[in-house]
Automatic annotation (TrEMBL):
Domain NADH:quinone oxidoreductase/Mrp antiporter transmembrane: 134-432
Protein's name according to its UniProt entry: NADH dehydrogenase
Transmembrane portions of the chain: 6-23, 35-59, 79-102, 114-132, 138-158, 170-192, 212-234, 246-266, 272-297, 304-325, 345-364, 376-399, 419-442, 463-485
Keyword Lyase attached: no
Organism domain of life: Bacteria
InterPro entries: CPA3_Na-H_Antiporter_A (IPR050616), NADH_UbQ_OxRdtase (IPR003918), ND/Mrp_TM (IPR001750)
Pfam families: Proton_antipo_M (PF00361)
Primary subcellular site in the record, as a coarse category: membrane
Topology with respect to the bilayer: Multi-pass membrane protein
Length: 494
């Protein structure tokens, strides 16, 4: 424990405490509490990242000064710190954007949706933070459940039949994932008597119970991350939710289970992962990249296109598994694969939040979100269309965006590891992404858009543009700046 060790714990407790206070405060009070906590949350996340970077070691806080396995620990390594900062910034942008839809003006009656939105946003924030800093597999299960039961109501806030059906489908996949994860926990505890990831990294053996447990937990986490073919719940859920909810679901919620999967593979059983199993995960990721992109190309609605794009972009995250499993003894390309995977998660979070919010502004202003009806949108809404294009550049992997840096690191790592087939997938995925982004931009940039009544300024456009710019600027940072994400890797630390 260090003097700054309490920061990760405070980053979890802050939004959870805010949610508890917001519930009896009504819609107007919940909004005020949320807005008041945003700068504190950003400060805690940046403070955690700065402390991890400065010390070159993870921050650890033992709850009640009881060390595992008797107590619980919060551990913020480089990956956790990067995700804490990403979550704080995205939640802040979404909260400011959402004031137009879920804010309650002075003297106005409080709406049901506003009363639900703000506590759920705080619950999601707390759950994401818990998912990235907890080290106990059961505490991670609690974080997954909190994520599910905060995200599911956001999907059906509008109360329409389509969104209710999407929410129920999401719930079914999530519960299936929870059952499988919980069964895996049972096997782990029965074999080793502890659920702490750090302790398990020394205890885990290459035995059948370990492999059965990890297989069950991996399948459960894939369902929650929506990796193809377990992605069926994601497009209708993300496309049907309000724009602010879609942004937070696509940017952050699917990343929580992904981080836990990384902890499981490279924390619980370092060096024990079977290369064949890692290749299967990589193959599923490759299929998601290619088939998800083709599905995005075929969509008629803008939000569905963006949702299928999420299915495809999630696939890139899983290319790091076969590269890292083959990496022991090859620190150089292992570091590239790790940094590429984490940077893909971060840059995608900002880009996809920008895309969903831009799509929401476009749909509200022109009254529909069919791609065929976007003619003239760039004249009416130049800033949202620009933001959509910038975020699209990052998803394509065009220099110098954050998406380019992530995909370049994964591509070069694949070539150096002798796994050239992943490089072909990355190149093919970039071309397909360019196809569906071009389809939207070509439609928006054509036509005269002569509807002056629709041309009115909206402060939210600046928020959308800022998110898109961040997704691009990440690629301008020197590679040494990403040394943060290398701190505390459980599997490959020198």
């Amino acid at each position: 424990m260090t003097a700054w060790g309490a920061l990760p714990m405070l980053a979890v407790m802050l939004p959870v405490l805010g949610m508890v206070l917001a519930l009896p405060a009504g819609a107007r009070g919940a909004e005020r509490i949320t807005l008041a906590l945003l700068p504190v949350g950003i400060a805690l996340a940046i403070g955690t990242a700065a402390a991890v970077q400065a010390s070159g070691a993870p921050l650890v806080h033992l709850l009640g000064h009881w060390a595992p396995p008797l107590g619980l620990a919060f551990r913020a390594d480089g990956l956790a710190a990067a995700m804490l900062v990403t979550a704080a910034l995205v939640v802040t942008a979404v909260a400011l954007f959402a004031r137009a839809d879920f804010g309650t003006a002075a003297g106005a009656p409080e709406a049901r949706t506003a009363f639900a939105f703000w506590p759920l946003l705080l619950a999601l924030w707390g759950a994401i933070n818990l998912a990235v800093v907890a080290t106990d597999l059961f505490t991670l299960y609690v974080a997954l459940e909190l994520l599910t039961f905060a995200a599911m109501p956001l999907v059906c806030l509008s109360g329409t039949r389509a969104t209710l059906e999407a929410a129920l489908r999401y719930l079914m996949f999530a519960l299936l994932g929870s059952v499988l994860y919980l069964l895996g926990i049972g096997f782990i505890y029965g074999a080793y008597g502890t659920l702490d990831v750090v302790l398990l990294s020394d205890l885990a053996r290459a035995e059948l119970p370990t492999y059965v447990a990890v297989a069950l937990m991996t399948a459960g986490l894939l369902a929650k991350t929506a990796l193809l073919p377990l992605h069926l719940w994601l497009p209708p859920a993300h496309a049907g939710a309000p724009p602010a909810a879609s942004a937070i679901l696509s940017a952050l919620v699917v990343k929580g289970s992904f981080v836990i999967l990384v902890r499981l593979w490279f924390g619980v059983m370092p060096g024990l992962a079977a290369p064949a199993a890692a290749q299967v995960l990589g193959a599923l990721g490759a299929a998601a990249i290619l088939l998800g992109s083709v599905a995005a190309l075929r969509q008629e609605r803008l939000k569905l296109l963006v949702a299928y794009s999420t299915v495809a972009q999630i696939g890139y995250l899983f290319l790091m598994f076969p590269l890292l499993v083959a990496a022991p003894g090859h620190e150089a390309y292992a570091a590239k694969a790790w940094t590429g995977g984490v940077l893909q998660a971060v840059s995608h979070a900002f880009a996809k939040a920008a895309m969903f919010l831009a799509a929401g502004l476009i749909a509200v202003r022109i009254g529909q979100d069919r791609i065929a009806g976007l003619a003239g949108a760039a004249r009416l809404l130049p800033v949202p269309v620009l933001a959509f294009g910038l975020a699209g550049l990052s998803l394509m992997g065009v220099p110098p965006s954050g998406g380019f840096a992530a995909k370049w690191l994964l591509l070069t790592s694949a070539i150096e590891a002798g796994q050239w087939w992943w490089a072909l997938v990355i190149l093919g995925g970039g071309l397909l992404t360019g196809g569906y982004v071009y389809r939207v931009m070509a439609g928006a940039l054509t036509g005269d858009g002569t509807q002056p009544a629709l041309r009115r300024p909206d402060k939210r456009e600046k928020i959308v543009l800022a998110l898109a710019v961040v997704s691009v600027v990440l690629g301008l940072l020197p590679l040494a700046a990403f040394g943060l994400v290398q701190v505390g890797r459980l599997d490959l630390a020198p």
